[in-house]
Amino acid sequence: MTGFAARDKGLGGHSRNADAPDPRRTRRRGGKRLARAMSDPTGVAAARISLPAPAIAAAILVVLIGLGVAIGGKVIAHQVVSGLLLGAIYMTVAVAFTLTIGVLNFLNFTIPTLFMLTGMAAWGLLSGGYLTLAGRGAWLAALAIGVAVAVIASLVVERFTFRYLKMKHGDATEHAIPLVSSLGFLIIFENLVLITLGSDSQRFAVPFAADLHVAGIVVGVPQLVSCVLAVAVVAALSFVLKRTKVGRALRTIAENPDTASLLGVDVGRVVPVVFILTGLLAGVAGALFTVNYGDVSPFMGDNVGTKAIAAMVLGGVGSIWGAIAGGLVVGLAETLSIQFFGGDSVAMTVWGLVLVIIVLRPKGLFGGAPIGKGKM
Question: Is 167 or 181 the better-scoring residue by pLDDT?
Fold first, then answer.
């Protein structure tokens, strides 16, 4: 007797009516109904309304902006705009952190260094006169090469923190080796820049510095363009993850790497894509920061990296929309803290806010998934 035939036999060997309900399933359904009824004091289970993450992020930002403008007028409105523009940079770096944690399950310490490499490589090319043939677009070519340097450096990290270690030790994500090796690359890259280009802060000249005046609020054109580009890059990444074959492969690996391999996903070829996207996000953020503030140094990534980690935790580890909202909230918290309490209060305000969120909602504003192998 086959397994299916044995399953369909009742007592005495008689075949069970196919239309008759399975008593085991009935008991399970009844138990679930009873549990819902007992948990609902009114006896009627409340319907859950699920809102999309972008709508929640937009609502939070609108409330914060409205409160700021209502309380402080144009001064606070200007600080809010500045905070959103700064938050766009934090947002981009926070998404890079979220991508590596969500898919590969480790905190990539080289991301702040990739951010720094873009600005310093661009300044080195301009100051050395290597792009004189580019004419007035030399600064743009320098930034593009800087982003390419960040992507290449990210692939070098992938080669020695994942590919080599996976071949030698099996599943490298089970160990702390990738975490420590990425920290080693951070120190190596930073010291290479210090030896090559020096430790001083340098000025990166941008040929335009126009301002827009909107309702009495001054908005810098570079900052506005940078914010639009940052949002466009993150939106493109979200599209890639949701709509393309590569994105589906990345999400499959994030859910369970072993199952992804069984389903035919070539993990060895898809993982480098994560590092390419990470280098691209960090490089674009570094280029936008350089254009916005016109200042580069070998240590420019340290402060931005810590703020991006705070933004990631604030929004919910593993949630891209959480990283977006967290970055904007951290930018707002920074500018408003400077306005009300002075520049020395920024770190206390940002990390105090993170601690409050961790205590009240450990999963973050968007409830990121638990961290662990096979989860995103």
Answer: 181
How many residues are given for the chain?
A: 376
Reply yes or no on whether the pLDDT at 50 is more than 60: no
pLDDT tier at 57, thresholds 50, 70, 90: low
Q: What would the mean pLDDT of 64-91 be, rounded to a whole number? A: 78
Indicate whether 21 belongs to any domain: no
Q: Does residue 374 form part of some domain?
A: no
The CATH number covering residue 163 comes to 1.10.3470
Q: Alpha helices of the chain — where are they, by DSSP H?
A: 3-8, 23-39, 53-104, 111-127, 138-158, 164-169, 177-197, 221-243, 245-255, 257-262, 267-293, 300-315, 320-341, 346-360
| Closest to 68 (Cα-Cα) out of 339, 287, 266, 270 | 339
What is the residue type of 296? Answer: V
Q: Per the domain annotation, does 253 fall within a domain? A: yes
Full DSSP string of 249-265: HHHHHHH-HHHHHHTT-
Question: How many CB atoms within 10 Å of residue 23?
Answer: 8
Phi/psi class of residue 198: alpha, beta or left (left: φ > 0; alpha: ψ in -120 to 50)? left
pLDDT in the model for residue 171? 55
Q: What is the pTM of this model?
A: 0.76
Please name which of 319, 327, 299 lies closest in space to residue 366, comparing C-alpha atoms: 319
CA distances (Å), 116 to each of 94, 153, 217, 333, in order? 15, 11, 30, 23
Q: How confident is the model at residue 174 (pLDDT cuts 50, 70, 90)?
A: low
- Provide the domain count of the chain: 1
Burial class (CB in 10 A: 0-12, 13-18, 19+), 98: buried
264 assigned to some structural domain = yes
Beta bridge partners of 219: 212
DSSP for 313-371? HHH-TT-HHHHHHHHHHHHHHHHHHHHHH-GGGHHHHHHHHHHHHHHH-TTTTTTPPPP
Domain that holds residue 101: 61-360
